[in-house]
Amino acid sequence: MRESLIERLFQDKHICRLIEMYVSYYRLRVATRSSKTTTEAPIPPGTLDEMRLRLAAEQHLLSPRLQDVGAYVAAHPQSIAVDTLAEIAERAGSHPSTLVRFANHFGFGGFSELQGLYKQHVHEHFAAVDYGARIRSLQQQPGECDAVTSAGLLDEFTDASLLSLQRLRAETAPEDLDGAVDLLDDASRIFVCGIRRAFPVAMYASYALTHVGTDCRTIDGLGMMHGSQTRTMTADDLLLAITYRPYANEVQEAIAAAHAVGARVILITDSKQSPGAEQADIVFAAPDAEVRSFRSLNASLCLTQTLCISLGYRRDASSASADAKSAN
Description:
Layout: H1 2-11, H2 13-38, H3 48-58, H4 64-75, H5 77-82, H6 85-92, H7 96-105, H8 111-125, H9 131-138, H10 150-171, H11 174-186, E1 190-193, H12 199-211, E2 216-219, H13 226-230, E3 238-242, H14 249-261, E4 264-269, E5 282-285, E6 290-291, E7 294-295, H15 298-327
Parallel strand pairs: 1-2, 1-3, 3-4, 4-5
Antiparallel strand pairs: 6-7
């Protein structure tokens, strides 16, 4: 009788459907619990260099809000090291909870752990007593002190420039420098483009490259001729582009034109996530100092000078080697 009742239950389609749904639900719960216990949290970066590499590799995987945070973190490492969570959120145009989610994405338990990575880098690479206090004083805004003097401003700009140059030396990879000099040396012609705040850097680059014997062309837009000047580039040429926020359209168009014809591109900018970086062969993020909302160009000019003079020494050595061979 009992077996007959069970057989009837299993012959009922509705009962069978309920049993199947229950079994499926049970299996799903088991699989979910198993995945939660077996999935390991991402391992946080151990150094600032690792963090930069992770951020560059995973930036496109982040949500739009986290991408905004990532752009700020990449462009303002000093702020991450010394400012409070609330200050960073305000400057990044975000919410403190978004910063915490950003840190969690990279395996940190909270934003303070991520911030500790930047503080550690500061202490290891910059020999300064109370570095945080110095940065805060350099970021002081007009009106926050009783009087502004010329001597005081000179101190602020000098200190900020020294810090930015220390960062440039610590954060610029030697292989990027060597690779950029290789590209400059191999180029048939070198085109230089930088407008507005980047214009002085572009003009110095053009001046120095001409004096080390290169065929250098400046895309200066004189007479609104940006388009005509960029159209003469070929695959044998190189474009040295300089641009900073808000990233001039003319420079972006020059980068796109160079990329379209197969010319090599070296980009000097303020963030490795800046527009045009994906089309450049080598990207340098120059950490130019900012004091009272005025940004200097010391790091950019020092980097540009390094590239140009390195190219000069490279060509002098090649010329001397060629002369020695001909003499033999």
